[in-house]
């Protein structure tokens, strides 16, 4: 793309500031001060990259998650979204390095042969050491240099696909739901993200996986889950038999006016077909981002009361909705590390000349009124990722989750025998 003129850059900057002033849902912003601090750098930027960096600085000053600024022709994404994999800082024989932590099946990293525990050495031949990170351009190919646990060095080429959506730079793995049986009949369900606004496909896949497992004990793995849409409701609905409040979001206008969560429009069913979408559009078309969410009342499951939920510092957004719901109603034992604390409702806006702005427009609360943004969710049992254990082929947090279910079974057996 060609660089914008100063007049065009000013127009985009003004549009961004105007939207922050009228739509942003977060701490109050002094837009006058924002202009004073950032306008010159944005308007006088000599290149597209410098202009985007200047607008990124504006968004960073808002102090919230889920902000973004990108051009439709050059969308950027974090590594965890682009590769369907997360990284963590580890002291290795190569010094401080990024190590692959959550590598999701069906994602770009997994397809390139990368596995949990692989040490990232270089990207496109350039050394990459923490805290430096590389934002990936969607639609481009990168050559990584990684060290395997056996000491060998490999050079996987990762072809990052383009985004399916113009409004948001997002990469959806070919498979986001996987399931298998662990030892002693424990079911294992892993969900890497909740793609889609209504989540019809992921909801269907979750239900099929749960039915196929047919288990009395279940581990649900949301480690590294980047979030997504309301498809997470299906997972929450499989955690309890009845209809109950999950949480609610309110936009800026309603929050200032005051509201009763019981009077908000209620969403309690993921449509099973495209024909069921139209009634939802009619029901929620004028509600904006203010809505109350309830579970779908799918009925009892054999594993109810016998579930463990794996979370970590990379579990964000809709994954945190699930974790908070399970925690508030004591439906599963949370195992892992504190979640990311990135949970807001966002919208994407066109701001001119191919640029788009993404920012929070509503605040989400659990049914008990907890706002998770910037706070995250603590596990019931702390269990951190261990690179050393992964190099031995072990998954310590998963072992801890299985241990929780084994201990609970022993306690129930002892109680029934007594």
Which short descriptors sum up this protein?
6-stranded mixed beta sheet, 2-enoyl-CoA Hydratase, Chain A, domain 1, 7-stranded antiparallel beta sheet, alpha+beta, Pdz3 Domain, 418 residues, 21 strands
Describe the fold and architecture.
Helix content is 30%, strand content 25%. By secondary structure, it is α+β, with helices and mostly antiparallel strands. Strands 3, 4, 5, 6, 8, 9 and 10 form a seven-stranded antiparallel sheet that branches. The longest helix has 22 residues.
| Regions with little confidence, pLDDT below 50 for 5+ residues | none
Strand proportion, as a percent range, falls in 15-25%
The major sheet is characterized as:
7 strands, antiparallel
Rg over C-alpha atoms, rounded to the nearest angstrom: 22 Å
Tell me the helix content.
Answer: 25-40%
Separation, N- and C-terminal Cα atoms:
74 Å
CATH topology of the largest domain: 2-enoyl-CoA Hydratase, Chain A, domain 1
How many domain modules? 3
CATH class wording of the largest domain? Alpha Beta
| Secondary structural class | alpha+beta
Count the strands? Answer: 21
Shape, per Cα inertia axes: globular
**Average pLDDT level:** 92
The appropriate CATH architecture of the largest domain is Alpha-Beta Complex
Within CATH, the superfamily of the largest domain carries the name 2-enoyl-CoA Hydratase, Chain A, domain 1
The DSSP helix count reads 12
């Amino acid at each position: 793309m060609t660089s914008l003129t100063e007049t065009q850059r000013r127009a985009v900057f003004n549009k961004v500031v105007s939207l922050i002033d009228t739509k942003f849902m977060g701490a109050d912003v002094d837009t006058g001060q924002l202009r004073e601090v950032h306008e010159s750098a944005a308007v006088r930027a000599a290149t597209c990259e410098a202009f985007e960096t200047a607008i990124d600085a504006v968004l960073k000053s808002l102090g919230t998650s889920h902000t973004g600024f990108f051009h439709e022709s050059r969308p950027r994404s974090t590594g965890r979204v682009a590769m369907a994999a997360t990284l963590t800082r580890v002291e290795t024989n190569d010094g401080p390095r990024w190590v692959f932590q959550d590598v999701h099946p069906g994602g770009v990293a997994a397809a390139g042969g990368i596995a949990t525990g692989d040490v990232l050495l270089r990207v496109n031949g350039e050394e990459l050491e923490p805290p430096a990170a590389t934002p990936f351009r969607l639609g481009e190919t990168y050559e990584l240099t990684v060290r395997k646990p056996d000491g060998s060095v490999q050079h996987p080429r990762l072809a990052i696909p383009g985004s399916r959506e113009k409004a948001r730079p997002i990469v959806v793995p070919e498979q986001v739901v996987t399931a298998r049986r662990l030892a002693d009949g424990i079911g294992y369900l892993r969900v890497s993200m909740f793609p889609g606004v209504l989540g019809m496909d992921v909801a269907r896949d979750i239900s099929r996986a749960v039915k196929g497992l047919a288990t009395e004990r279940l581990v649900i793995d949301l480690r590294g889950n980047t979030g997504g849409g309301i498809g997470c409701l299906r997972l929450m609905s499989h955690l309890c038999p009845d209809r109950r409040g999950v949480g609610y979001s309110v936009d800026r206008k309603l929050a200032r006016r005051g509201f009763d969560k019981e009077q908000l429009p209620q969403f309690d069913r993921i449509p099973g077909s495209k024909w069921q979408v139209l009634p939802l559009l009619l029901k929620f078309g004028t509600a904006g981002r203010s809505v109350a969410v309830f579970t779908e009342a799918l009925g009892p499951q054999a594993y109810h009361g016998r579930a463990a939920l794996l979370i970590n510092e990379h579990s964000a957004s809709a994954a945190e909705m699930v974790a908070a719901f399970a925690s508030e109603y004591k439906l599963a034992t949370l195992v892992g590390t504190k979640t990311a604390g990135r949970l807001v409702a966002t919208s994407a806006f066109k701001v001119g000349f191919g640029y788009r702005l993404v920012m929070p427009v509503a605040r989400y609360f659990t049914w008990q009124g907890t706002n998770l943004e910037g706070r995250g969710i603590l596990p019931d049992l702390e269990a951190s990722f261990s690179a050393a254990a992964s190099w031995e082929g072990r998954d310590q947090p998963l072992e801890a989750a299985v241990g929780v279910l084994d201990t609970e079974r022993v306690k129930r057996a002892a109680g029934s025998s007594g």
